Amino acid sequence: MDEVILKDESAVRRILVTGAAGFTGRHAVRYFHGLGAEVTAAVREPSADGGIFPAGVREYACDLSDRAAVQRMVEEVRPQEVLHLAGRNSVPESWKDPLHYMEANVMATLYLLEALRGAPARRILVAGSRLKYRPGVDAGPPHPYSLSKTLEALVSLAWGMLFKQPVLLAEPCNLIGPGPSTGFCSLLAQHIVRSEDAAASGGALPIFSLSSRYARRDFLDVRDAVRAYDCILCAGEPGRVYRIDSGTMRELGGIAEKMLALAQTEVQMDWGGDAGASARSETPQAAESSPEEESAESLGWRPGMTLDQSLADIMEYYRAGRKGRSS
C-alpha cells in the first residue's frame, strides 16, 4: 500500500496584499509568491489581461472604500497575514480632492481592520508614510495627504491596541526601482527615454525641470523594501512603527547626473532653484522619531541593492516598455 502524505496547510503562508496592482504591490506579490506563499492580490479593478501577476496568484477585485465588499473579501480569503499597501499617495491630487484621501487612506484602512477582527490573521502590516506630521510638535500638516497618512497611522495602531489585533506599521522612505512608479527617478527615466526617441526621429528634445538640484532624499530600492516588509511581518512587534530606509540622504542633482550618464543621447535639463530648497525638502525625512519607532534593521534586515543597480534597472524597465516588453 502506497504511503499517503498529507500536506500541512498550516505550513503554507496565506497572505493578502492590498494595492497589489501598484508599484510596490506588484513587487510584493511576486516576492511572496516566489517564497511559496499562497498570495491573494487585492486590486480595485481586475486587470484587463490578467498578466500582471505570476500564475498561481489569486487576483481579487475589491473596492476598499466599500465596507461590505471588504468584509466579503476577508471572509473568503481568511488571510493569515496582511500587507496593506492600498491608498492614495499624490500630494497635488490630495489638494484637489482631500475627502477622497481621507476615504482611501483612513476609512478604507479601518474597514479592513474591522473586517479582520474575526479573521485568523497573525500579522497585519500597514504601510505608512514618512510624510506624516507630529501633532503637538509640528505646526500642522503640510498637505491633505500628510494629514490622511497621519490619521491612518494613529487609527491603525489604536485599533490594534483597543481590539488586541496584531497591527504593525512600516514607514518607508522614497522607493525606487523597475515598475510603474510616479516617483522622481521613474519620471526622469521616462524623460530620458523620450529624449532618446526624439533624437532618433529628429524631433525636438523635451525639457525636464528640477525644483532644486540640492534638495535631498533618502532613496531605497522597492525590492529591498518588500524584503523589509516580510521581515516585519515575521519578526516585528505589534504596536510598533518600523522605519525602512537606506540611511543615506542624496541630492536630486547627484541622482539626476547618475541617470544622465546612462542616457544614449543629449538630455535637456532645467536644474532648478537654490540650496534653500534643500532644508525645506528634508523636513519630512529628518523628523525625529517617536518613542514607538525603530528601524527595520533592528530585526536583522539590511538593504541589498546598490543605487547604481536600481537606476540601471529603472532605465531598462522604461526602455523595455518602449519595445512593448515591460510588465
Mean pLDDT: 89
Give the helix proportion (percent range). 40-55%
Computed over alpha carbons, the radius of gyration is 21 Å
Report, as a whole number of angstroms, the end-to-end distance. Answer: 48 Å
Order of helices and strands: EHEEHEHHEHEEHEEHEEHEHEH
Described by strand count, sense and barrel closure, the largest sheet is: 8 strands, parallel
Strand content: 15-25%
The protein's oligomeric status is single chain
* Structural class based on helices, strands and sheet pairing: alpha/beta
Task: Describe the protein in words.
The protein starts with 13 loop residues before the first strand and ends in a 5-residue tail after the last helix. The strands form three sheets. It has an eight-stranded parallel sheet, with helices on both faces. A three-stranded mixed sheet has the order 7-9-11. A two-stranded parallel ribbon has the order 8-12. The protein has 327 residues and is an alpha/beta fold. The relative contact order is 0.12. α6 runs parallel beside α8. The chain contains ten helices and 13 strands.
List keywords for this structure.
globular, 327 residues, disordered N terminus, 8-stranded parallel sheet, 10 helices, 17% strand, 40% helix, single chain
What does this entry show, briefly?
It is built from ten helices and 13 strands. It has helices at 23-34, 67-77, 91-96, 98-116, 144-162, 184-201, 222-235, 252-260, 276-282, 307-322, and strands at 14-18, 38-43, 58-61, 81-84, 123-127, 167-172, 174-176, 207-209, 216-221, 241-244, 249-251, 268-270, 293-295. The protein is globular, with a radius of gyration of 21 Å.
